[in-house]
């Protein structure tokens, strides 16, 4: 996205690192909103671009516009700014590209880069999926200070953890954010996916270079 420029830079560094390793199993998409990113770049990342350009050139919040199991059109407010989802899910050119990539290629795991909460988010209703847990724990070895908790034998505790870790952002009715790409990937293609929220909007997460060590 435009306001998450450092996730873009992190992805670019990952591409360079993987190329140096001669390991080609990774498929890296640096951004799914190139229009918003370019506008922010052209304007030297003024403060207003913190949220203004999370939308695409059509004025749609792309990451609330995927065909998830519970998609519906929605308008919402975040930090006093108005946002809308697509009226029809997967209708934006950017979401169609992601759909085409997922259908054309086979993926064993997917990592999504965002900022900035210093946490691993999981798709909705995936907390007990062993493959999801395995991916999260793999990432936890690389980013040990990021928040993530494995399931325990205490169901009440697990309910609290789920409310914190799943991408629908705390399961509240006021924040209807569940039509995200991660939910779409998991519930339509059953690929383990974890969303990494970096520590800061303005910092490259250099430790992700260690992902290269987990390749076969």
Written description of the protein model:
A hairpin with a 2-residue loop joins β1 (75-78) and β2. With 216 residues, the protein is α+β, with helices and mostly antiparallel strands. The mean pLDDT is 87. The chain is globular, with a radius of gyration of 17 Å. 33% of the residues lie in helices and 11% in strands. It has helices spanning 5-21, 34-42, 93-104, 130-142, 155-165, 181-189; strands at 75-78, 81-84, 110-115, 119-121, 193-198. The strands form two sheets. Strands 3-5-4 form a three-stranded mixed β-sheet, sandwiched between helices. A two-stranded antiparallel ribbon has the order 1-2. The longest helix is centred in the N-terminal third of the chain and has 17 residues, at 5-21. It is built from six helices and five strands; from the N terminus they run ααββαββαααβ.
Write the layout of secondary structure elements.
Elements: H1 5-21, H2 34-42, E1 75-78, E2 81-84, H3 93-104, E3 110-115, E4 119-121, H4 130-142, H5 155-165, H6 181-189, E5 193-198
Parallel strand pairs: 3-5
Antiparallel strand pairs: 1-2, 4-5
What string, H for helix and E for strand, traces the elements in order? HHEEHEEHHHE
Q: Strand sequence of the main sheet, in spatial order? A: 3-5-4
Distance between the termini: 30 Å
Low-confidence stretches: none
**Biggest β-sheet description:** 3 strands, mixed
Radius of gyration: 17 Å
**If you average the pLDDT, what whole number results?**
87
How helix-rich are the residues, as a percent range?
A: 25-40%
Oligomeric composition of the shown chains? single chain
Give me the secondary-structure category: alpha+beta
Please tally the helical runs, counting DSSP H or I stretches of 4 or more residues: 6
How many β strands by DSSP? Answer: 5
Overall outline: globular
| Content of β-strand | 5-15%
């Amino acid at each position: 996205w435009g306001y998450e420029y450092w996730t873009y830079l992190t992805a670019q560094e990952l591409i360079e690192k993987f190329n140096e390793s001669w390991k080609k199993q990774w498929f890296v998409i640096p951004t799914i909103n190139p229009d918003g990113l370019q506008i922010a770049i052209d304007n030297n990342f003024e403060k207003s671009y913190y949220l203004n350009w999370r939308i695409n050139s059509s004025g749609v919040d792309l990451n609330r516009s995927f065909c998830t199991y519970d998609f519906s059109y929605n308008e919402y407010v975040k930090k006093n700014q108005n946002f809308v989802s697509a009226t029809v899910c997967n209708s934006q050119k950017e979401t169609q590209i992601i759909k085409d990539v997922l259908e054309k290629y086979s993926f064993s795991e997917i990592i999504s880069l965002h900022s900035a909460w210093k946490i691993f988010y999981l798709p909705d209703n995936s907390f007990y999926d062993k493959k999801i847990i395995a991916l999260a724990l793999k990432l936890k070895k690389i980013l040990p200070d990021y928040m993530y908790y494995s399931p325990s034998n205490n169901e009440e505790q697990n309910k609290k953890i789920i409310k914190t870790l799943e991408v629908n952002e705390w399961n509240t009715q006021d924040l209807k954010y569940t039509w995200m790409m991660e939910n779409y990937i998991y519930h339509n293609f059953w690929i383990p996916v974890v969303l990494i929220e970096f520590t800061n909007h303005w910092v490259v997460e250099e430790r992700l270079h260690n992902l290269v060590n987990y390749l076969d």
